[in-house]
Design goal:
Strand content: 15-25%
Helix content: 25-40%
Oligomer: single chain
Number of helices: 4
CATH class of the largest domain: Alpha Beta
CATH superfamily of the largest domain: endopeptidase domain like (from Nostoc punctiforme)
Radius of gyration: 19 Å
CATH topology of the largest domain: endopeptidase fold (from Nostoc punctiforme)
């Protein structure tokens, strides 16, 4: 079950969370989403991809300091992309538009299981992840977590060995 949406209704962040339920709550204003996604281990890219979230920093039109976020619905051969968004034309207003101007565009946040072009991201396999292994691998970042993960792997191998001997 997806998390409840804690973002303010009618804003771009609320719309983006509804369209991409994999986005966690608590990333703040739209301009904060790109660095928070990177810090959280999500893949990011400077190239648009269908299903990704486009994130703009402060100063976009409308020129408030909150930034903007929108769901990428299509990518054209010329590099422009189509987004579905809320609060670009007014609070609570949903629209679709083609983006050609990349002013203040921070980049694109990719859905889980997608490979980004950020060298700081852990490589992840694409496709279904029924056991949550990609998500778990992305969370094994500290020495303690890596050691704990290694113990878990050893324990799982021991259980598998015992089951195979039956």
């Amino acid at each position: 079950m997806a998390d409840l949406n804690s973002y303010a209704s009618g804003n771009c962040t609320w719309w983006a969370k509804n369209q991409a339920p994999w986005v966690p709550n608590g990333w703040g204003n739209a301009a904060e989403w790109f660095p928070r996604a990177q810090q959280s281990g999500y893949g990011t890219s400077q190239s648009p991809r269908v299903g990704a979230l486009a994130v703009w920093g402060p100063g976009v039109d409308p020129p408030w300091g909150f930034g903007h976020v929108a769901l990428v619905k299509g990518v054209q051969p010329d590099g422009s992309f189509t987004v579905s968004e809320m609060n670009w034309k007014g609070l609570g207003v949903v629209d679709t538009r083609n983006v050609t101007d990349r002013s203040n565009l921070l980049g694109f946040i990719l859905p889980p299981g997608s490979r980004g072009d950020s060298s700081s991201q852990l490589g992840q396999a694409t496709g279904p992840d029924p056991f949550g292994l990609n998500q778990a691998a992305g969370q094994l970042v500290s020495a303690g977590q890596v050691a704990g993960g290694a113990l878990l792997v050893v324990a799982a191998l021991g259980v598998a060995f015992l089951l195979l001997r039956r």
